[in-house]
Design goal:
Shape: globular
Strand content: 15-25%
Number of helices: 6
Order of helices and strands: EHEHEEHEHEHH
Radius of gyration: 16 Å
Helix content: 40-55%
Length: 174
């Protein structure tokens, strides 16, 4: 019997929305989670911080991140979560993926957003990670108001579990 797969949920959250879903995913998948922290976290607070965040993502300015507490080499699967800023992954997440893409073999992506932009953000994340995710999940503000977010997260978790089970089965039959 194979050891259970180790799952890490890595995310950035400015307003705590993405953090809420990251915690839920880590709990449902029995994984660990790591919140990406910037060296200067106050820079993104409030309305001015929101504007600076949008400027950073549009101008492709990298974030200055604190070191991680988890070692990526200890995990089989990394779920990466981000808020969507101007149809892109947040600057902390895009910076992190650019720095760590080579340390991940299997990824899944999730995002939170006002209304739209997930497709572009997921394409950007896939380019940066240099691999196709086993699953994606986009949660909009409307999903949260209509309670559709819980169902979307449940489907995302099920898709991840199915993909991992298929990979495990394939490896066992080789």
């Amino acid at each position: 019997m194979n050891a259970p797969l180790r799952i890490l949920v890595v995310f950035y959250s400015r307003s705590e929305t993405t953090a809420e879903f990251a915690g839920r995913l880590a709990a449902e998948l029995e994984g660990d989670y790591e919140r990406l922290q910037e060296v200067e976290p106050r820079r993104r607070r409030g309305p001015l911080g929101f504007l600076l965040s949008i400027l950073d993502v549009v101008r492709k300015r990298p974030a200055h991140l604190q070191p991680m507490t988890h070692r990526l080499a200890d995990y089989d699967v990394v779920l990466i979560g981000t808020p969507v800023w101007a149809a892109r992954a947040s600057t902390p997440v895009s910076t992190w993926i650019s720095l760590h893409w080579h340390q991940m073999s299997t990824v899944a992506f999730f995002c939170t957003m006002g209304a739209r932009g997930s497709e572009d953000a997921f394409e950007q994340m896939q380019r940066l990670a240099r691999r196709v995710p086993i699953a994606t999940c986009a949660i909009s503000a409307q999903d949260m108001r209509a309670d559709a977010a819980v169902e979307k997260v449940s489907r995302f978790v099920l898709t991840i579990k199915d993909a991992l089970a298929a990979r495990e089965h394939e490896a066992a039959t080789r």
